[in-house]
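User: I'm curious whether this sequence folds into something compact or stays loose and floppy. Could you predict its structure so I can see for myself?
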Amino acid sequence: MSEHPKTRDIRLNRMSPFTEALGLELVNLDREGCSMRLEIGPQHFNAGGRVHGGVTFSLLDSAMGAAVYAHLAPDEMTATIECKVNYTLAITGGVLACRARVVHVGTKTMVVDAEVHQDGVLAAKALGTFARI
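Assistant: Here's the prediction. I'll summarize afterward.
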């Protein structure tokens, strides 16, 4: 199967204006999965002085979506149709590392799991379902 055109944009860190504004950086993308990182800045914190859960969710969702593109035909697109996240650590800063991998490739959907670590400690775990459009 030929490479999806979107994977070239992802590899060039041109995922979307939203991910660029958030500061997500691609580390690796292949058929085994996707790795991304995010250096936490002051714009990522909530009023309680911790990283906003939406930042962590966006990192997970973006890495999972990118992992799906490595399995799509060039004429297909994807969209998140469900995602569950367990937050296991109140993130205080530093660099977040995310790894996503596709665990099921179906004809209509794909299932992806992902983890975010802060300094080697699990901060969040996600399981998502993505539509093949």
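Summary: The mean pLDDT is 94. The radius of gyration is 14 Å.
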